[in-house]
Specification:
The complex is a heterodimer of chains A (288) and B (354). With 288 residues, chain A is an all-alpha fold. Chain A has twelve helices and two strands; from the N terminus they run αββααααααααααα. The longest helix of chain B has 14 residues. Classes of the chains: A mainly alpha (288), B alpha+beta (354). Chains A and B meet through helix 8 and helix 9 of A and strand 6 and helix 2 of B.
Chain lengths: 288, 354
């Protein structure tokens, strides 16, 4: 066979290449540049090697932020995934209820992130907010701006409210793709509701659930806007997750070198966890 | 043992899915429900199984009214057109699943699953998951699940429709053997007349929610009660033409083709139904007449040739053995086997019965 060789096809790749270079590679390289150097302005840089990386990796502040981040992500995954599946299972499969439920479920996803933060901030204010005021009125000592526990509670509640819908919609799509014959076959076998869920619905939802977990993991690990507007990372540093802490360091203290090193470490953690997660799931996929 | 539907009717809103139907299926029989898609085969099966309740009418099993009995209590099993197995169970666990729920001892489960697996040639695959199997093997697993339970009623809803040709042929040959010596009633739904003929037993022809005719498969095929039943049970489609009978001469109204017939019916106009394989490019039987036609399409399958042609205002289909090469537009001469004609009166009822 004679293959025609035509290298002109590369020209088609150039626009994409330029675009990606400008929106990803160049900014990233700037961060890399900062992370190895020290600057005092006037475009004067001095080489620092891996000093900033060592400093960040050994700092208690980074460890604490990473711990808070891991805690937050674990909690919201543990709540949102089962809750999302549960809601999807109870949603109607036909009739007028379907569009109503779908629209209701999509609502929180359509609200801009900073609006969600502002909404919940006002909603939870202990003196005038509906949630805060009610909680205090029925005897809870609730104040999310001063008590760390309350701040965590409110942040988690806000994230659950904002993002459980995503898990619901994905699970619902997975459930709807199961052919009715499966349910009939199980009914003929005399399988219990739990058995139907465990042996038919869950395995059939596996792919969309994998996607849901991956998306929710990444999003929550990189969360910034909502807690920034709601608590600003406070009280103290108690809700300062990685990205909030990073911005404080970069823009608040103007420690550009350490902040750049921290961004890169942050980026590699996310990348690494996604890779581990993805390959674990793909391995399961091959096995079954 | 028998399953009896008494005036069963199924409506959904303004649509009638099953018109009032009465049908009695006997023990140790295979019953084919034959009809095109949307004829009501699946609905009827779901009513038989108890997965769906009839709008009116009753279902009796063994002399007991089971209309309101839940499906779990009815001891029936069903195989679907899609290959329905539990996705993360092995073949063994899949086959064993109906037994485990009823609480059979594990030794007996092992023995019974082993036996059924051997019957369905699955012994080597017991530890595999359904995804790792071919379509044919997946459907064999589903069949094994239906058989392992010793059900009173086994429902097969177009079980071969999603298989490719070779696997379909293979499994179709095995099916009747699988149900031999089993104390149960088998119901088999299909759109293909050839399936019904190969499986034998009894056949019910269905059209648009009505059971047209029920009886021994060969009887329904060779003596359809009416034109509708004949049409349902004919593939390729039956040729239908109007004729005029005058004394012992019958003549196609559309043209000059005429023949002598000893059939004892009054003079007048009738319809005749001629199955495609009774119109051939060569003489067959002692009593054949010629018909001229212009070839529309000719399809060769190797062992058979399907020739569509026009004569007068009608389109005809003929089916001959071997390769009969014809070109589109050719004027050709074919032969019709007069002895095999089916005569229907103006109400579409068969008149040359017996």
């Amino acid at each position: 066979m004679n293959k025609t060789i035509n290298q002109k096809a590369w020209y088609f790749v150039i626009p994409v290449f330029v675009l990606v270079a400008f929106n990803a590679a160049v900014p990233l390289m700037t961060v890399v540049n900062y992370s190895f150097q020290e600057t005092f302005g006037n475009n004067v840089f001095t080489w620092e090697g891996t000093r900033w990386f060592k400093q960040i990796l050994q700092s208690d502040r980074f460890h604490a932020a990473l711990g808070r981040q891991a805690m937050f992500t674990s909690i919201i995954l543990l709540i949102q995934i089962p809750l999302g599946i549960g809601i999807a299972l109870t949603m109607p499969k036909k009739g007028w209820g379907v569009p109503v439920c779908l629209i209701l479920m999509s609502m929180p996803l359509l609200i801009p992130w900073n609006v969600v933060g502002a909404m919940w901030n006002i909603f939870a204010l202990p003196d005038i907010g509906f949630l805060g005021h009610t909680l205090n009125a029925i005897g809870f000592d609730y104040n999310f701006t001063q008590q760390p526990g309350d701040a965590w509670f409110t942040t988690i509640l806000m994230d659950v409210w904002h993002w459980t819908s995503l898990v619901v919609l994905l699970s619902y799509a997975g459930l709807n793709s199961i052919q009715p014959a499966y349910y009939q076959a199980a009914e003929i076998d005399g399988a219990s509701r739990w058995a139907i869920f465990r042996y038919i619905e869950l395995p059939k939802m596996k792919k969309v659930l994998t996607l849901a977990i991956l998306l929710r993991f990444m999003d929550s690990f990189m969360i910034y806007t909502e807690p920034f507007v709601l608590t600003g990372g406070g009280p103290g540093n108690t809700t300062a997750f990685l990205s909030i802490d990073l911005v404080k360091m970069a823009l608040g203290q103007f420690d550009l070198g350490p902040a750049a090193a921290m961004s890169l470490i942050y980026f590699f953690i996310v990348l690494l966890l996604c890779w581990v997660f993805y390959s674990l799931m793909m391995r399961n996929e091959e096995k079954s | 043992m028998s399953l009896e539907l008494k005036n069963v009717e199924k409506k959904a809103g303004l649509d009638t899915h099953i018109y009032p139907t009465s049908l009695k299926l006997e023990k140790n029989t295979i019953n084919v429900l034959l009809g095109s898609t949307l004829a009501g085969k699946t609905t009827l099966m779901q009513i038989m199984a108890g997965l769906d309740k009839p709008t009116s009418g009753e279902i009796w099993f063994n002399g007991q009214n089971v209309t309101n009995m839940k499906v779990q209590k009815r001891n029936c099993s069903m195989v679907y057109q899609q290959f329905i197995n539990y996705p993360n169970f092995t073949v063994f666990e899949n086959i064993a699943s109906p037994l485990k729920i009823t609480g059979v001892s594990s030794a007996e489960v092992k023995q019974r699953v082993g036996k059924v697996a051997e019957l369905l040639k699955l012994s080597a695959m017991l530890n595999k998951k359904p995804d790792e199997l071919s379509g044919g093997q997946q459907q064999r697993t589903a069949l094994a699940r239906a058989l392992v339970k010793d059900s009173d009623l086994i429902l097969l809803d177009e079980p071969l429709a999603n298989l490719d040709f070779k696997l379909r042929e293979e499994l179709r040959e095995e099916l009747p053997k699988l149900f031999e010596n089993r104390d149960c009633i088998v119901v088999y739904a299909t759109t293909e007349p050839s399936d019904a003929l190969m499986i034998g037993g009894n056949t019910a022809t269905l059209l648009k929610g009505k059971v047209i005719q029920y009886g021994k498969t060969l009887d329904v095929y060779s003596k359809p009660e009416n034109l509708v039943s004949a049409k349902v049970f004919s593939d390729p489609p039956m040729n239908i033409a109007e004729i005029k009978k005058n004394g012992d001469i019958c003549k196609l109204i559309d043209n000059n083709v005429q023949w002598k017939s000893s059939i004892k019916i009054k003079d007048g106009t009738y319809k005749i139904g001629i199955r495609p394989h009774n119109i051939t490019t060569y003489k067959e039987g002692n009593n054949s007449i010629e018909i001229n036609g212009k070839v529309l399409i000719s399809e060769l399958s190797g062992s058979e040739s399907l020739i569509h042609f026009t004569n007068g205002n009608l389109n005809w289909v003929s089916l001959s053995n071997g390769i009969q090469q014809k070109n589109i537009g050719d004027e050709t001469k074919l032969f019709m086997n007069v002895d095999e004609f089916l005569y229907f009166d103006q109400n579409n009822r068969l008149v040359n019965n017996g």
